[in-house]
């Protein structure tokens, strides 16, 4: 009788293991799909990051150029303020 119980226990254990194996396999496949999706998103984000870094570089260069222009215009404005303004000609009196 103990052999029958041991045999039954063995069969029951094998069924449980087989059931768990299928469940683990399904879970493994789901995890593989999640990993693939995450890798694709990661690659997409890397591409966007590179694009944004290039855009940042371009904008930085543009900003530097605009700052130089502003500095030159400020110097010109200061120089213009220091020069005396030309006097406007006085209008001739109108004949009556």
Strand content: under 5%
Give the low-confidence spans.
Answer: none
Count of DSSP E strands? 0
Largest beta-sheet characterization: none
Q: Tell me the Rg in angstroms.
A: 41 Å
Distance between the termini: 144 Å
Oligomer: single chain
Helical residue percent band: over 70%
Structural class: mainly alpha
Which term fits the overall shape? rod-shaped
SS summary, helix count: 1
Which whole number gives the mean pLDDT? 86
Q: Sketch the topology as an H/E string, one letter per element.
A: H
Q: What can you see in these coordinates?
A:
The chain has 96 residues and is mainly α. The protein has a domain at 10-75. 84% of the residues lie in helices and 0% in strands. It contains one helix and no strands. The chain has one helix at 2-82. The longest helix has 81 residues, at 2-82. The radius of gyration is 41 Å and the shape is rod-shaped. The termini are far apart. The mean pLDDT is 86.
